[in-house]
Amino acid sequence: MAAHTVCNLILPGKRDSSLIYDCVVIGCxxxxxxxxxxxxxxxxxxxxxxxxxxFSEKNCGxxxxxxxxxxxxAIKMDTRELLAGGSSxxxxxLAYHPGGSPETTVSTGFFGFGTTRKNLNEFMARxxxxxxxxxxFGQPVHNIRMRNSYFEINEYLAxxxxxxxxxxxxxxxxxxxxxxxxxxxxxxxAGAVFGTDMACQFFNVGSLLPHNYQSERNYFWIIPIGxxxxxxxxxxxxxxxxxxxxxxxxxxxxxxxxxxxVKTVIAPRESxxxxxxxxxxxxxxxxxxxxxxxxxxxxxGGISGAxxxxxxxxxxxxxxxxxxxxx
Length: 327
Ligand SMILES: Cc1cc2nc3c(=O)[nH]c(=O)nc-3n(C[C@H](O)[C@H](O)[C@H](O)COP(=O)(O)OP(=O)(O)OC[C@H]3O[C@@H](n4cnc5c(N)ncnc54)[C@H](O)[C@@H]3O)c2cc1C
Description:
- The chain is of the alpha/beta class.
- The chain has two domains: about 1-60 and about 115-180 and about 275-325, 3-Layer(bba) Sandwich (FAD/NAD(P)-binding domain); about 65-115 and about 180-270, D-Amino Acid Oxidase, Chain A, domain 2 (2-Layer Sandwich).
- The protein has helices at about 30-40, 65-75, 80-85, 115-130, 245-260, 300-325; strands at about 5, 20-25, 45-50, 65, 90, 90-95, 105-110, 115, 135, 145, 150-155, 155-165, 180-190, 200-205, 220-225, 230-235, 260-270, 285.
- Strands 1, 2, 3, 9, 10, 11, 12 and 18 form an eight-stranded mixed sheet that branches. Strands 7-6-14-15-16-13-17 form a seven-stranded mixed sheet, with helices on one face.
- Strand 15 (about 220-225) and strand 16 form a beta hairpin.
- Helix 1 runs parallel beside helix 6 (about 300-325).
- The two termini are about 40 Å apart.
- The structure holds flavin-adenine dinucleotide.
- Flavin-adenine dinucleotide binds near residues 28, 289, 291 and 306.
């Protein structure tokens, strides 16, 4: 077993391999943290195992929509902490449809926050930890076995297991059934030409390109994520050969007119935008988030889908466990 560390922002662990946890959650992303937080708040002994040794930046637009903020507020997570940590409140949204009928709309309201992914993940993990969840980093899980009626996950035993590993295969046991969308994104530092409270979306960008890639759902984004940082990226409804070329073309068309003195902080990366379309169970585990196909790739609104599925699964697990205790 690889050496592991307990994250320093986590409560001192009561880690003890003879303990039978009520639930082990695999993956400390959005869905896993929410689920663990809910279960711990309801008095369960919860352990989260995260493969990464620590959180780092990941490929994401960083837009926590107002729907996500509402969901987090409903479960009493105070998202103002994100703003205090340097994230950007998004109060204006520019939507630009250059392809078909030229239409530019600027709406005002509350459109949520823009943040770095590292900041979001740390915030979510702190919430779970504060509720009593134990989190161990540097603990990739590759197999889940049943021992008597318990789940055996690495060296830990649990009554319930939750798979929250995002849009990835879990070893060879789950096949990638659908890859509905792709995205490529980059974090840049730039002086604001648009307001730092304004997120921009350029729709139907494909029609500008020689690829003749037609889809209303194809778009390019520019999202303020605090501290003069911007997340720029492009969403593709299906993969195509020259995604990077298309991305670079959109970057040169839009970013230079929207931002000044752009410098790359994190180079562009391509990745799938949910979902694994998981159906069926691995050892009767509960699957949540992107892994369970619970993100909405058409709108890029994966974070709200992950939050919702974490909440939903925790309620179901709590009711199952309460029923068992009551019997
Ligand atoms: C380029 C891009 C841009 C996006 N932009 C946005 C956006 O602006 N707004 C939005 O709402 N959504 C966006 N999304 C979607 C959003 O990021 C996902 O839908 C969301 O992160 C899904 O959450 P999750 O908890 O299911 O998975 P994740 O957040 O991916 O978390 C899974 C966790 O499990 C861990 N893990 C994986 N395998 C193992 C293992 N074997 N053992 C232990 N741990 C493991 C991972 O390290 C990770 O920490 C974007 C996605 C992409 C790719």
